[in-house]
Amino acid sequence: MPKKKSYHHGDLKNALIEAGADILSKDGVSGLSLRKVAQKAGVSHTAPYAHFADKQALIAAISTEGYKKLYEQIAQVAEQYRSDPLRRLVESSWAYVQFALDEPDHFKVTLSGMIEKEQDYPAFVETARQTFGLVVEVVTQCQQAGILRQGAPDLTAVSVWALIHGFVTLLLENQISHTVLDRYTVREMFIFTLNQITLVELDAIAFALADGH
What is the pLDDT of residues 145-201, one digit of tens each? Predict the structure, then answer.
């Protein structure tokens, strides 16, 4: 009889989160159960209950972890280009796209709204608020520099977020025609998309990535 996988301290929770994200992204909430997650992670069916009280607690943990990863990636880039607001906007937005492309399962679950009672999970609420706060900060700096239109920074941040999220969702759902995909890189399409809201022209060549993504 095959042995169950052994985990170092803390690894089991992460393994369950990754397994849950994979199941959720493919089968939705109705297809998720702690038993299925345990099976996918290769542990006993009771193991998840050591970390999660129920399915919603697992979903909240998956979403919280996703937001943490997203925040860390955006924050790293935002800090790197703190003195250059235009580049800061471009690269922070690109970090969002990159996270979605690198970890599509986690991205889909994190931004899905699957948590039924968000206020029951303060860690999720705080991480989501922190991430949005960083977007508002970047937007405010760009408004002050004349890169984005004036207006309520939080509403402008929602608009910027919506634009980038819509773009990356089309990518993940394979909704962009191959007649376009065959002619442009994802980075070129991204720059063109961002150009629709900036008051200064973004040069796709100047903002091209060295690796051609």
Answer: 999 999 999 999 999 999 999 999 999 999 999 999 999 999 999 999 999 999 999
**Under 8 Å between Cβ of 118 and 124:** yes
CATH assignment of 1-52, among 3.40.190.120, 1.10.10.60, 3.90.550.10, 1.10.10.10: 1.10.10.60
- Tokens for 210, please give them: 């060295």
Contact yes or no for 193/162 (Cβ under 8 A) = no
What whole-number distance in Å separates Cα of residue 22 and Cα of residue 43? 16
What letters, b where the CB count within 10 A reaches 16 and e where it falls short, cover 180-196?
A: eeeeeebbbbbbebbee
Task: Quickly list DSSP for 81-148.
Answer: TTT-HHHHHHHHHHHHHHHHHH-HHHHHHHTTT--S-GGG-HHHHHHHHHHHHHHHHHHHHHHHTTSS
- Token reading at 114: 């699957």
Q: What Å distances lie between residue 98 and 29, 57, 188, CA to CA?
A: 25, 27, 14
